[in-house]
């Protein structure tokens, strides 16, 4: 006989999933949490289950056998592979868009065509499957920088901002001719470069209602001052002074309301997260890209500020009753600094012992979020490029930054690397 405790399966193994697990554990429904495959941090929130996040067959089997009430999908790959369709076919509640809706992230060309059709502001673009045609377009437009994107999922590495014709040609050849991104790069889009400041806004969507969340800004480049190659994200903060109340209203009307209109007209069953990567150019917001899930490390600074019960929001999404919920946010600022393995985003070593994380277990204003971590004979070790995210929360952004960095200094592993300027551009704006 089934007991009445809410059972949640959370899919993924990164910092985003640890943040989600911590927030779900706060629920007044006291859920029982399973995380597949999880990491050393999620193991403290529930039970890690050794199933890969794209192993849809075994995830389904686990959900059925364990009478899971709600599944929450963290990463994009299982969404694009159609996990939501599979779970829906088996009458299981799941948070995420169906396979068609997941194309919002899974295909840049699909996403750009959707934006064009529903008049969502974005850069002009063309799509190509032939490198000679793409190069001719570069020659004809002759404007640099120009942006070249692999159409499919490329683990965040499929975008090139080409400053010269040589760089543009090289990016085109890598994708189409040299199979650098395999199937994901067989089609590319080339779009105008937009010069401005970026922000991230997530929204809860149930197919009938869309509720944008508080804005955040992340730091993609590896080095201070936004220099060097892009990474999965080296830190984030929320809220951001870049997105004023007035600008937020514009974004809701010009982006999120139009996205929802598109879902309804296309009959897309979208009960998941819409992530809008926004760039503000001369005061006007445009979309760089959409994702079909929470972003990382922005989740780590958005969720700690959410006052609502996250499990209840997810349940409302499955029943399409999001219109009954009003999102509420704590006024505090949250700042996340990522501790990465030396050498990241290129090659790096794993298996370094991590010390100092336990010092914060009773500190309510610091969260240590695990990403690339594992337990080896009860010893905490590094197992990825982005290892930990240290999150500080305070009523002032300056104090939140100071508090975060003071915690960062107490955590160590061999060749640990972090940026020293997370949140500074917001301080300059304030």
Question: What do you see in this structure?
Answer:
The chain is an alpha+beta fold and 430 residues long. It is 29% helix and 27% strand. Strands 1, 2, 3, 4, 5, 10, 11, 16 and 17 form a 9-stranded mixed beta sheet that branches. Strand 20 (373-376) and strand 21 (379-382) form a beta hairpin. Helix 7 packs antiparallel against helix 8. The longest helix is centred in the middle third of the chain and has 22 residues, at 245-266. The radius of gyration is 21 Å and the shape is globular. It starts with 6 loop residues before the first strand and ends with a helix. The mean pLDDT is 96.
What is the CATH topology descriptor of the domain at 7-98?
A: Rossmann fold
Mean pLDDT: 96
What structural category arises from helix and sheet content?
alpha+beta
Please, what is the oligomeric state? single chain
Strand content: 25-35%
Give the termini separation: 57 Å
